[in-house]
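haha ok so turns out i had the wrong file open the whole time. this is the CORRECT one, sorry everyone. sequence first:
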Amino acid sequence: MILKDRNVIITGANGGIGRAVVYKIAENGGNIWACARTKTAQFEQDLQKTADQYGVWIEPVYFDMADENQIKNAVKEISKEKKCIDALVNCAGIVYNGTFTMTSVNKLKEVFEINYFAQIYMMQLISRIMMRQKKGSIVNVASVSGIETTEGKLAYGSSKAALIYASKAISKELATYNIRVNALAPGLTDTEMNKVISETDLQKVLDRSSMKRMAAPEEIANAVLFLASDQSSFMTGQVMVVDGGRLWS
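then structure:
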């Protein structure tokens, strides 16, 4: 168990990739603050079941990533526990598909608020704690959409490209504190977020993939585990692409 007795914050813990990351971290001995926007009985039951199964603790933390005050208060509550924060995994995000001419500036701001600005603020708050610890790992779940260019992905792709750049830039500043910052760029993954894709568009993406299929959330979680743990102790400022061999044009 490569994360035994380590403590990890996971945002977007109730999403497809986020939930898989919760399971993977717990399976490998990590304790978790599982951050989500909405409290549900099913979510809390799943967390408790996972904690009991793997002998770890998992605490739900509820806040809206679009609200700076809620983020700040959530981090305050976590820091009051006086526990070491070994890793932060930013899984939270929203998707929006729309052509350039049909994407309003307000929609761009909405997407960037969650996919970029909230991630930056979360990193600022948590990195201050990690700086005092003189250690930590930050994993930002971006997307291949932030690397390649695809029509209809202006808002989403731009926000993920910004997160990738930020991960690289921040890694240079935090390395002196023994804090690593890496980004993960998944390809199309079998989650509810991607159910909105039409069969035609889905097939176009799969045709450009060497493996001709979507990723399972667990496959993305495996990559997160590697980046969050000491298995990647000499990696920082990197973008790990997990896309089934996407053939970019």
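The helical segments are 16-27, 41-54, 68-79, 105-133, 154-174, 199-207, 217-228.
again sry for the mixup
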